[in-house]
Amino acid sequence: xxxxxxxxxxxxxxxxxxxxxxxxxxxxxxxxxxxxxxxxxxxxxxxxxxxxxxxxxxxxxxxxxxxxxxxxxxxxxxxxxxxxxxxxxxxxxxxxxxxxxxxxxxxxxxxxxxxxxxxxxxxxxxxxxxxxxxxxxxxxxxxxxxxxxxxxxxxxxxxxxxxxxxxxxxxxxxxxxxxxxxxxxxxxxxxxxxxxxxxxxxxxxxxxxxxxxxxxxxxxxxxxxxxxxxxxxxxxxxxxxxxxxxxxxxxxxxxxxxxxxxxxxxxxxxxxxxxxxxxxxxxxxxxxxxxxxx
Length: 294
Prior knowledge:
With 294 residues, the protein is α/β, with parallel strands linked by helices. It contains nine helices and seven strands, in the order αβαβαβαβααβαβααβ.
């Protein structure tokens, strides 16, 4: 597999997506009436007083792709965003871009496989902004999958430590901060691959099925604390890691006929984080252009 220090955009993920199985997501805003066949037009925006004004948002894995788009989207609607990743140069670029647009965003280098770094990330967020209201646990990696009879245990374990245990570590550290705030929202990135077996993506699919299970179980644990826990399951999305036409090829296999954009996932996450979803917990929002409906 690729560089284990990468936030998840590895060449091996490109290979999976070339096979037509999306690892990242397509989402449509609940308020949008746009034709699914037409991707939304990217429009430069400046931060404004929005529905997340005064809210503190923590995002893992936000130096590119879905995490980057979501960090920008929250900041443009008034949130104070703290985000992490493993790649410092990219983190600094995302931070600078959001601040240049008038948003409030702070990057901190952290690896979700390391509990001490996750703890320091959450502590820094709370100390800087006085609390935590919303957590989006998005960090993840991908690889071609385990093969029975010739398991690459190092690659498999690294993937599980990042994609599944990384979500657990983040939630374990986030929950006390959310409780102290009187409640809040957690959104975890799962995948449509968590719903079905796939010979090429055994390890990845297993990790995402685990995220779906964790989301449901923790939603039950935390409901009385006024903490809602939901997941978003993407299909194919057009990000830099899906180079070489992989995004277009995978997207054409969906009923909507195209790959999604990172901003579409961001809007789905923001819905689950907002008061519009105040009675939604323990759910998974499949945002895949109709892939799982077929």
